[in-house]
What does this fold into?
Amino acid sequence: MTEAAISGATHPILENDYASEWMGIEVLALTDGHATVRMTLRQEMLNGFGMAHGGMIFAFADTAFALACNPVNPGPADEGTITVAAGVDINFLKPAYRGQVITAVADRRSSAGRSGLYDIQVFAADAAQHQPDAGQPGELIAEFRGRSRTIPKK
It folds into this structure.
C-alpha cells in the first residue's frame, strides 16, 4: 500500500487505510490536534446529479478527523489505545464537482480525559484556481463536527 506522506513522514493509521488510498487523499499538514488533507473529485465519486456524493465528502472529512485525533508519533502513553469517532454531524453547504480539488482542515476544539471535540471544514476549488498556500483553499462546501473517544486497542 502507498502511504500518505508529509515531508517524508507517514501517519500510522494510513498504513492499512485502503478507503483513503482509493480516494487519493494526500496529507498536507499534521500537528497535534490538526490535519489538512486534499483530494481531487473523480467521476466515480459523483452522485446521480453530477455532483460529489455526500458520502464521499463525509468519508474525506472523516479521514481528516481521524488524523487530527491520533498522534503522528505515538508515545508510551498512547500504547494500547486508539481514538475513534463517538459521533459526528455534517452540514453540506454547497455542491462540489468532478475535477475540483477539495481540502479538509481539521482542528481540535477541546479535549478532556478520553473525549475530544473537532471541527473540520471542507473547501472546494477548481484545479486551476487551487493555491493552498494562498490562504483559504477554495469555497466552503461542508462543516463536519466530530466527537472523539479514546478506547483500548484490540
User: Anything to note?
Assistant: DSSP finds two helices and eight strands in the chain. The radius of gyration is 15 Å. The domain at 5-152 is CATH 3.10.129.10 (Thiol Ester Dehydrase; Chain A). The chain has one domain: 5-152.
